[in-house]
């Protein structure tokens, strides 16, 4: 019988696999496209996503305080292959990390339990999949179970003055009204405009 942690790991895997599907057709001509991440091209976004996978994998192995895995590196000749490799590192590390204390200096100075860290990763890759899709002009087919798992995490992220700091991972929340799609609620809670094109 899988534990709740392993169920979360499985949902996170689906979010990451969707990001890989979205990135697979990307060519060098796409890398200069604008993204919803202010000031970032698609190349910048892929480099960030790749680095985050490596950082989370290092954190799962108890090496999260080392800044090197978190560092954004120049994209190689095949950015999508590099992304896939980094994603595989994180996905392989998580199932054994339930009891790990994740150190993630990019998020906060304290350590996080495995379930919270994997939840952060899940939200990150759901939202960045939307960023990629928006940049490419393709529809997002987000897994409803992934969105349902991400929504309470996104809603719990403090919407305070830190979001205005340079390099903050999220911008201030965007107001949404009426009956809103759950993915749009995740995006708006983290400062994304769901109507960005």
TrEMBL record:
Domain Mycothiol-dependent maleylpyruvate isomerase metal-binding: 14-133
A Pfam entry, by short name: MDMPI_N
Domain of life of the organism encoding this protein: Bacteria
Xref: NCBIfam families: maleylpyruvate isomerase family mycothiol-dependent enzyme, TIGR03086 family metal-binding protein
Protein name from the UniProt record: TIGR03086 family metal-binding protein
Organism: Actinoplanes sandaracinus
């Amino acid at each position: 019988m899988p534990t709740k942690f392993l169920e979360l790991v499985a949902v996170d895997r689906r979010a990451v696999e969707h990001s890989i599907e979205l990135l697979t057709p990307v060519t060098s001509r796409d890398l200069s496209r604008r993204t919803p991440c202010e000031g970032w091209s698609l190349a910048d976004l892929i480099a960030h996503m790749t680095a985050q996978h490596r950082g989370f994998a290092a954190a799962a192995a108890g090496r999260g305080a080392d800044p090197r895995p978190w560092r954004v590196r120049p994209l190689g000749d095949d950015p999508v292959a590099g992304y896939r490799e980094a994603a595989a590192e994180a996905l392989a590390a998580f199932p054994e990390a339930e009891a790990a204390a994740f150190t993630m200096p990019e998020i906060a100075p304290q350590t996080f339990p495995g379930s919270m860290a994997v939840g952060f990763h899940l939200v990150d890759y759901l939202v960045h999949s939307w960023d990629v899709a928006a940049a490419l002009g393709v529809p997002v087919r987000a897994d409803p179970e992934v969105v349902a798992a991400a929504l309470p995490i996104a809603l719990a992220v403090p919407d305070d003055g830190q979001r205005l700091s340079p390099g903050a991972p999220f911008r201030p929340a965007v107001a949404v009204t009426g009956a809103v799609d759950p993915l749009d609620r995740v995006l708006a809670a983290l400062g994304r405009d769901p109507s960005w094109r």
